[in-house]
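dumping this here so i dont lose it again. seq + smiles for S-adenosylmethionine
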Amino acid sequence: MFDSISFEYDKLNRLISAGNDVKWRKKIHKIAKKLNPKNILDVATGTADIAIELSKIKDSKIIGLDISEKMLNVGRTKILNKNLSEKISLISGDAEKLKFNDNHFDLVTIGFGVRNFQNLEKGLKESYRVLTNEGTLIILETSVPENKFIKFFYLMFSRTIIPLIGSIFSKDNKAYSYLQKSAEEFPSGKNFAGVLQNCGFNNVQILPQMMGASSIYIAKKH
Ligand SMILES: C[S@@+](CC[C@H](N)C(=O)[O-])C[C@H]1O[C@@H](n2cnc3c(N)ncnc32)[C@H](O)[C@@H]1O
């Protein structure tokens, strides 16, 4: 599905989130920078926006991995244009079967990726496996606001505007209906923190963004 929307993905992301997706990725960079990671894996990197943001961390090397070759190709062009090929490598791969040794990365990030995994726990356990013992996982994912009043407006927006934007601007409007539906059904907040704990992660922090329309989760391997 992401192959079919790769060219429009960045623009529609900006439009649907009213530019907030850029701020959220900058927040990930701010959190990550304090951890001073050297080896970073950005899982479900897509068009590499998180990888590019993380490349600002001094002495870091980033691998961006994704299952969609066309999303990666958009990312590769951006990396070439920004002269970041020394810092970022983009590779094709499956989050649920990572081809890396255990205890390898200081930081794993996953932006708007986990809700697309076929098997959520399998994917998260793979991220856990490849992290070093001191390693950290940072996830950015859509969530549903807990406050009933805000949730009402959130659902109204997401059920009407997102599919409408998809039908006007996208070649694949089914993709945007899927993205909206999956965002509503995916576990968020404390429920998602519970999934992370079941996969072995510790000290899970939840940082709701934009009144809970998305959340950043920070979890430690140990
Ligand atoms: C919504 S995009 C997010 C892209 C990017 N991380 C961002 O912040 O914009 C989701 C990405 O997850 C990728 N993806 C879904 N399942 C995957 C898997 N099992 N392994 C690797 N990538 C996967 C898709 O190909 C797509 O590029």
